[in-house]
Specification:
With about 300 residues, the chain is an alpha+beta fold. The chain folds into three domains: about 50 residues; about 100 residues, 3-Layer(bab) Sandwich (Phage tail protein beta-alpha-beta fold), CATH 3.55.50.30; about 120 residues, Jelly Rolls, CATH 2.60.120.1440. Helix content is about 30%, strand content about 30%. A hairpin with a 5-residue loop joins strand 2 and strand 3. Helix 1 packs across helix 3. The termini are far apart.
Length: about 300
C-alpha cells in the first residue's frame, strides 16, 4: 500500500493544482484529474479546500478593489522619479550586495536555493543570497550564518548541541527544525519543531514550535511571537505564501529573489493587502503575477522595477 503523503506534501500539491488551474493552460483532462485527486482521501479534500480558500483571497481585499477602481496613472508622470529612483536603487543595490569569501563553506546566489546534508546527518537548506560556514568538532556542531536565511533540520546528537552564530545572536538546539534569517535590518529565529534557545546580549529566550523572535540592531531584548512556521518556511519547498500582507512588505520579500531593486513610492499603494501563493521556481514571473492579479502598473528598467 502506498504511503500517505505528509500534510506539507499535500499542501504543496494542492497549491500546485491551484497554480495550474488558474494559469489559463489547464486542459479538461487536468481539471478532471484535480477532481479525482481531491477524492483520494479526506486529507486531500481538506488540503484542496484550504488552497482554494487561500487562492480566492487573491485580489479580493478591499484595498485591492479600491486600487482597481482608480484610473491608471500614465507613465510620463513618473519620469522624473524614475530617473532619481534608478540612480538610488542601483547605488543602494551595489552597496549592500554580499560577496562570498573564501571562508564560506556554502553560499547561494540571488534567486538560488541549495540543500545538502552535513556530516552528522543534519539537513540544511539555504535560501536566496545566503552564505554560511561550518565548523564541527568532537564536542560541538557550529555554523556561522554570515548573510541570508537557512533552515536547519537537525539530526539527533544529544552529546553535541547544534549552534548557529548570526552576528551577535547565538541559537542553540539539540533536535527539531528551525530557521535563522540575517540581513541588514534584523535577525529572525523561527522554530518549526523542537525547542530552541536564543542568546542575544544579556537575554536568553526559549522558543517553541510556531514561535519566532526578531532582533533589530541596538535592540537589547525581543519577545516571542506566535506565527505560522509552515507558511514562513514554505520557501524551502519553492513557495512564498502571503496572507493579507502589505504590498510594500511583499515587494521587499520578492526583491530577495531577483537582481536589482523594486521601487514603490506610493505609501497608500504600499499598504494594499496582498494574499496569494508565488512560485519561486519561476522568479522572473513573480512581479508579473502581482501585475495580473492586482492591476498594478510596473515599469521595468535595468536593475529597477518601478511599481505604481
Amino acid at each position: 500500500m502506498p504511503s500517505t503523503p505528509s500534510p506539507d506534501d499535500l499542501d504543496d500539491q494542492a497549491i500546485d493544482w491551484q497554480t495550474l488551474l488558474h494559469s489559463g493552460k489547464a486542459s479538461a483532462r487536468q481539471r478532471l484529474d484535480y477532481q479525482r485527486w481531491q477524492q483520494l482521501s479526506p486529507a486531500h479534500k481538506t488540503a484542496a479546500q484550504e488552497a482554494e480558500a487561500l487562492w480566492a483571497d487573491i485580489g479580493l481585499t478591499a484595498s485591492a478593489e479600491q486600487h482597481r477602481a482608480r484610473p491608471r496613472r500614465r507613465a510620463y508622470r513618473w519620469a522624473n522619479g524614475l530617473a532619481a529612483g534608478l540612480l538610488l536603487a542601483v547605488l543602494g543595490y551595489g552597496a549592500t550586495d554580499y560577496v562570498p569569501s573564501w571562508s564560506d563553506t556554502h553560499h547561494t546566489g540571488v534567486g538560488q536555493r541549495q540543500q545538502w546534508l552535513l556530516s552528522d546527518g543534519t539537513r540544511v537548506t539555504l535560501n536566496s543570497a545566503t552564505a554560511l560556514s561550518v565548523d564541527f568538532t568532537g564536542n560541538q556542531r557550529s555554523v556561522i550564518l554570515r548573510k541570508g536565511e537557512a533552515l536547519f533540520e537537525l539530526a539527533d546528537d544529544p552529546s553535541r548541541p547544534f549552534i548557529v552564530q548570526a552576528g551577535q545572536d547565538r541559537v542553540a538546539a539539540k533536535n527539531g527544525a528551525f530557521s535563522v534569517r540575517r540581513d541588514a535590518v534584523q535577525t529572525r529565529v523561527l522554530v518549526a519543531s523542537g525547542a530552541v534557545q536564543v542568546q542575544h546580549q544579556t537575554q536568553t529566550l526559549e522558543l517553541q514550535p510556531n514561535q519566532q523572535a526578531l532582533y533589530q540592531p541596538g535592540q537589547a531584548v525581543a519577545e516571542r511571537q506566535q506565527v505560522d512556521a509552515n507558511a514562513l518556511t514554505a520557501w524551502h519547498r519553492g513557495k512564498l505564501i502571503f496572507n493579507r500582507k502589505p504590498l510594500q512588505d511583499v515587494l521587499s520579500e520578492l526583491e530577495r529573489y531577483q537582481y536589482g531593486r523594486i521601487v514603490l513610492p506610493d505609501a497608500t499603494l504600499g499598504a494594499m493587502q496582498i494574499s496569494g501563493v508565488f512560485d519561486l521556481n519561476d522568479p522572473q514571473n513573480l512581479l508579473h503575477t502581482l501585475e495580473q492579479r492586482y492591476g498594478l502598473n510596473i515599469t521595468y528598467l535595468p536593475f529597477v522595477a518601478w511599481v505604481h
